[in-house]
Amino acid sequence: MVVRAPLAGLLHFALLAAGSAQAALPEMLAKSVISVPVSVAAPAFTPDGSTVYFHRKEGDERTIYFSHKEGESWSAPAVASFAQQWTNIEPAMAPDGSFMIFASNRPIDGSGKVLDGNWGNSPEPGRGGNLWRVDRARSGWSPPRRLPAEVNQGTSVFAPAVSNNGMLLFMKPGADGLFHLFEAHPKGASYAVEPLSFSKDGVSDYDPAIGQDGSYIVFCSNRGEASVPPSTSRFEARTAAGVLQSAFPTH
Question: Which residue has the higher pLDDT, 218 or 2?
Fold first, then answer.
């Protein structure tokens, strides 16, 4: 798993005040239940907001948990059925709740060996990742299936995000060793994958989030004023004629 400082911490949320475009001050989500003093990140809510999936660090491992809202409280987190083994992180829920995509270092062949990663031109033994999908089933979730090789090129593919038109965003390292953003559109049983035009060598772009309608994305980057490591800022890109345009800082 990629360890990036902006991801480490407790989960917070903010709600838009009625009749206002301003968000309320962030509040910790289920303090001492979901938000505990370990690395807790990547929340993904079901469409009705009644269940949240997230990854949490336990010892040296990270895996995906879920919690149900019960009245004004949240249930004690439990490990997701598809995440009982290996490192499983960064769940991304489809807007209609019909499937979820996540990153995992689980073996992709019969060797039983977990994936090794490589980014920053540095090997990361056991910390690789590919993207996997589970579909909503009558009694929970289907067994995970690995996304096609067009998406999973290499062993360091992370940070999925899904829109309601089927577009998938993710990050993987380029030839410069830095993470860059890619978009994938369903094409038959596979995907057509392209790098985002503004995510180029020399800057690190990561952790994309996408609007449900696919009209914009928000992501972290060390570009521009944040170009001096380890600083990062959030950037936004919007679509025009179905194409994501140049990125600009959020405010």
Answer: 218
Biggest CA pair distance of the chain: 56
185 Cβ partners below 8 Å, 6+ apart? Answer: 166, 167, 168, 191, 192
**CA distance linking residue 21 with residue 193, whole number of Å:** 35
Q: What is the pLDDT of residue 218?
A: 87
Q: Which structural domains are found in the chain, ordered by start?
A: 5-249 (2.120.10)
Checking phi first, is residue 90 left (phi over 0); if not, alpha (psi -120 to 50) or beta? left
Dihedral of the alpha carbons of 128, 134, 140, 142, in degrees to the nearest 10: -110
Q: What is the pLDDT of residue 15?
A: 42
Q: What confidence score (pLDDT) does residue 247 get?
A: 62
- Is the pLDDT assigned to residue 105 strictly greater than 50? yes
3-state secondary structure 25-89: CCEECCECCCECCCCEEEEEECCCCCEEEEEEEECCEEEEEEEEEECCEECCCEECHHHCCCCEE
Select from 45, 95, 38, 37 the least CA-distant residue to 74. 45
Q: Any idea which of 1-10, 11-20, 87-96, 140-149 has the lowest mean pLDDT? A: 1-10
Which amino acid is it at 97? G
Radius of gyration of the chain (CA): 18
